[in-house]
Each structure stands twice: as structure tokens, then as C-alpha cells.
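[Automated response] Your request has been received and processed.

Submitted sequence:
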Amino acid sequence: MARMSSFPPPEPSPNDRFSDVPGIVVGHAHDTGVRSGTTVIVPDAPVIMAVDVRGGGPCTRETEALSPHNLVERVHALVLSGGSAFGLAACDGVSDGLRAMGRGFAVGPVHVPIVPGAIVFDLL
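Generated structure:
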């Protein structure tokens, strides 16, 4: 049975990219020598995010914090990286940069950016 929606489907963005969405900044860096890279998605304001982790060897950071029963309600960035477990270090750099800009979850006088990340195994 077909599902009907009262809302029309969204129009495709000009280039069909994350960066076409207002309020989202996307950065990417890669190394052709090792054939790996990192993409960072940073919203202008913290956003609600969810995750579904699957696979026999998942490698993630702060994804459990996204569960609805936990304290974290919104995130400040998302990191998707190659580099196997080494790629998780990209989250540290993003967290440091956001903290330097005063962005993050306020814990007293300190701001703690919530930056979940997921990586793929691409070392071979």
C-alpha cells in the first residue's frame, strides 16, 4: 500500500550536497597517498542527531551519548573519517576548535563540544 504525505517532497538542492543546506558548514580533507580522508559537518547551532551502529567491528566516538535516555540532547559537529581507529583522532581536533570558539555544552565556565564520530577501515 502506498503512503501518502500531506507535505510535498523537498526540492533537490542545487548540487545535492550537505553544504547546500542553510546553516550547515562542511569541511573535508584527504590524503591521496594513503587514500583516506575526513569529512566534518558543523551546524550553525547545536542539532539533534541519532545513530544506528552496525557491523562486526564498529569504531565510533560519543555515539552512545546520543541515546534518548542520556543527558546529551544536541551535538555541535559530526566527524566521518577513514583511517580505522586512527581516524577517531579527527574528533579531538574538531572539539578543540569548537571549544576555542566558545561552542559546546556548558559545564560551569567550560564548554564541552559534543562531537560524535564514526570511521571506516580503509588502511589496506
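Summary generated for your ticket: The two ends are 45 Å apart (CA to CA). The helical segments are 89-100.
If you did not submit this request, please reply to this message.
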